[in-house]
């Protein structure tokens, strides 16, 4: 049985190693290292309380979600980075992480979750849509998907997602339904 728990600062080295290993099959080692730079230690230093780690019985990381609540907008939250061991993909693990984050965000009074991905990441786009996210209008479309050009700098287009946490999600969180985290 796996354990879903709040992230800790001490998880950082393991999460970086997971990124470099889990994405190593689709990227060069240099590209995988660059991807891991999107997960600096500061995310766990300042947002471990809103981030999740799933580990196996031996304590090895199987999946993680790094997310946070906006400091500037009291109703928004954001999912920054999610990773699932390739051996567990397609088994509902990412859904489990997202639903736990939704529940916790609703408990904290957040009514909206945001996320982004690159236009070429068709798997991520499909997953976010299946999780109830809407694509925000962009300045152009790629394969029928709205895209924000230069979102993360020149040539760095992104697809921006928004999900409203409906009354059912908030009520379920108030009843304590969903994934238990430790």
From TrEMBL:
One GO MF term: acyltransferase activity
Matching SUPFAM superfamilies: Acyl-CoA N-acyltransferases (Nat)
Record-listed E.C. numbers: 2.3.-.-
Superkingdom of origin organism: Bacteria
Protein name: GNAT family N-acetyltransferase
Pfam families named among the record's database cross-references: Acetyltransf_1
Organism of this sequence: Streptomyces milbemycinicus
Domain called N-acetyltransferase: residue spans: 2-166
Signal peptide: none
């Amino acid at each position: 049985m796996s354990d879903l728990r709040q992230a800790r600062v001490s998880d950082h080295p393991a999460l970086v190693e997971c990124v470099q290993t889990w994405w190593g099959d689709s990227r060069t080692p240099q590209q995988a290292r660059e991807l891991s730079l999107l997960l600096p230690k500061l995310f766990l230093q300042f947002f471990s309380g809103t981030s999740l780690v799933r580990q196996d019985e031996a304590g090895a990381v199987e999946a993680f979600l790094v997310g946070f609540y906006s400091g500037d907008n009291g109703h928004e939250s954001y999912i920054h980075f999610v990773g699932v061991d390739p051996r567990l993909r397609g088994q509902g693990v990412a859904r489990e992480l997202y639903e736990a984050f939704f529940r916790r965000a609703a408990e904290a009074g957040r009514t909206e979750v945001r996320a982004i991905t690159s236009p070429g990441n068709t798997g991520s786009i499909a997953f976010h849509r299946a999780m109830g996210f809407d694509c925000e209008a962009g300045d152009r479309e790629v394969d029928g998907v709205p895209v924000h050009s230069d979102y993360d700098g020149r040539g760095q287009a992104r697809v921006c997602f928004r999900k409203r946490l409906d009354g059912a999600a908030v009520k379920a969180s108030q009843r304590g339904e969903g994934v238990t985290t430790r």
